[in-house]
Amino acid sequence: xxxxxxxxxxxxxxxxxxxxxxxxxxxxxxxxxxxxxxxxxxxxxxxxxxxxxxxxxxxxxxxxxxxxxxxxxxxxxxxxxxxxxxxxxxxxxxxxxxxxxxxxxxxxxxxxxxxxxxxxxxxxxxxxxxxxxxxxxxxxxxxxxxxxxxxxxxxxxxxxxxxxxxxxxxxxxxxxxxxxxxxxxxxxxxxxxxxxxxxxxxxxxxxxxxxxxxxxxxxxxxxxxxxxxxxxxxxxxxxxxxxxxxxxxxxxxxxxxxxxxxxxxxxxx
Length: 269
Fold this sequence. Notes:
By secondary structure, this protein is mainly β. Helices cover 4% and strands 43% of the residues.
């Protein structure tokens, strides 16, 4: 209603704190791995930095459509992605008021896969995540695949192809179509339907509009054009719009209208 962020207590289902300031729909929330801080991005063109103990933002960056954010594992670097600009920029968290120390332009990368897979350049980015080893940066999309980037150079490591093709779900910054095309989209916003496993080797993601989860192995040999196909599929009765990994309990959660959980089979060698 007010484009704010709310801190919910899971113990008694009550709101502990309200974080107000955004003047547009919030498109991304990123929790700091080393403290009580978090980042939020919004359609109002700002990235705000918060501390859970205060209702007021403790920092702000102004962008053109900064729809996605992420902390690196050491909580010293933040990444901000702007799909319309087809850019990912990296900031030193302690010097965020300075220009970014790295910028990754994905225009040529997206053009490369636009013709072969129908990947929409500059559209449909749904999530941004660093691997735990700091080696990779995963950029998920609602298109026919995801981008696994080198976190230091921004070079494409793999294009994680989804054989089932694009989803019919909207990305966080998308605007719901008002024409006849609106019937082709689910009137809800998805975020990060793929995630990295704690070891940084495997990527687990949704199977588009189909049921099941796809698994890619980042160490597997890809095609000459860097396209990597799934190595296996985890069966399920429902499609997944959001996928997340819990490293503490070593389980995968996937959800859309229902939540599904996967745990490793310890009896399998």
